From TrEMBL:
GO MF terms, alphabetically ordered: transmembrane transporter activity
Source organism, top-level taxon: Bacteria
Family annotation (InterPro entries): MFS (IPR011701), MFS_trans_sf (IPR036259)
Protein name per the record: MFS transporter
UniProt GO cellular component terms: plasma membrane
Topology relative to the membrane: Multi-pass membrane protein
Source species: Pseudoduganella ginsengisoli
Residues that span the membrane, as ranges: 27-53, 60-82, 88-110, 117-146, 166-194, 236-256, 268-287, 299-318, 330-349, 370-389, 395-415
Localisation: Cell membrane
Amino acid sequence: MITAIQRYLATAFSKDPLLSNAAFLRYWFSSVLNSFGAQVSSLAIPLCSAMLLNATPGQMSIVATCQALPALLFSLPAGVWLDRRRKLPILLACEIMQGLTLASIPLAWWQGMLSMPWLYVVTLIFHTCAIIGGGAEQIFVLAIVGRDKLIDAQSKFTMTDSTSRLIAPGLAGLLIQWLTAPYAVFVNAASFLLSAWNLRQTKVEEPAPVPSEKHPLRDIREGFAFIWNTPLLRTFAWGIGLWHMLFYGFSSLQILLATRELGMTPGWLGVTQMLGGLGMLASSMLIKPMTRRFGPGKTMLTGISMTIMAGFAFIPAIPANWFGSPLASAAAFAGLVFIYDCGVMLLFISYSSMRAHATPDAYMGRIISTMRFLTIAMGPLGALAAGAIADRYGVRTGMGCVGAIGIALAAALILSPHIRSVRPR
C-alpha cells in the first residue's frame, strides 16, 4: 500500500510542473506556516483589544487605521526600493521583524504593560513590514513560477489557506478561551520566525535588479503615469481603493458585533470562522474553471459582489437571538462568512493576475506598491468614519453605512467596461 501511495504521489508531482519545483514547494510550506499563524492572530489580537482591554469602537477603528496607514506612508518609496534590490533578503528581514513584533504582545501582557497604545504601535510596525515584505513576496513568487503559472500557484495557496481556515480558527478560539489571547499570539510569532528560516534555504535565480540613475521621485512619478495611462489599472485604483475603505470600516467593527451584539464567545467565534475556510476551499476549486470560462474580469466582479452583499450588507443585519436562539444567529454569521471569504479570494486572485499581466517586469515593484498606496491608503478613512458613527449611533449603524456604500460600489464596477472586457486567456 505504501508503494502504491508513493507511485501515486510521484505521478501527481511529475504531471504538475509546480509540484516538481523545489523552490515553489519550499515557498509554499512557508505560506502554510504563515497562514496557520495568521488565522490565530486574526482572532487573538482583536480579542485582546475587545475583551482584555475593553476597547471602544473608536479605539478598534484606530487599530484598523494602523493596519492601513503604512500603505499611505511607505508604499511609494518601497516600490522604487524593491525595483532596485533583490527580493529574498528583504522578505526574510520583514518576516523576522514581524515575528519579534508579535512576540512583544504576550511579553507586555505578562509584565502588566499591555495597553491600546502598545497595540497601536505593534500594529503599525507589523503592517509596515507587511507592506514592504508583501511587495517583495509577490515579485519573488513571479520569479519562482512565472506569469503563466501565477493563477495555478495562487489556487494552490488558496487551497492551503482554506485548510488553515478550517482548522486554525476553531483551535484558536479554544486556545484563546482556555489560555487567554496573548498566549495564542505566540503561535503566530513562531510561525513567522520558522518561515524565515525555511525561506533562507530557498534556491532560486532572481533576476538582477535593473540599475537606475534616476531620482526616486521620478520613478514614483513614472509608476503613477503608467497606472493612469492603463485603463484597467486606473479602474482598479479607484474600485479596489473604495473596497478597501469599506473593508477596514467593516473589519474594525466585526469583532464588536460578534461578541457584544450577538453574544458569541471566542470559541464560537472560532468555529464560525472555520466556515470561511470552506469558502476559501470552494474558491480554490472555482477560480480556474471560472477564469477559463468567463475570464478574470467577470470572476473578479463576482467575487467583489459576494463580499459586499454577504459581508458588508447582510452580516450587520443578523439579529441577536434569531428565532429565540443565539445558535441560529451564530449559524447565520457562519454562513455569510463562508460566502464572504469565497468572494474575497475570487476577487484578489483575479485582480493580482490581471495586474501582473498588465505590468512590464521593469515596473513590477513600483506598480505593486503604487497600487497598494492607491487602494489601501483610503483604509484609515473608512476605519475612522465607521468607528465614529459606531461610537455615536451604535455598531450596527456604522456597519450598515458600510453596506449601503458597498452596494453602490458593486453596481459601479459591474457597469465599468474595463474589467468586464478582460477575456479568458
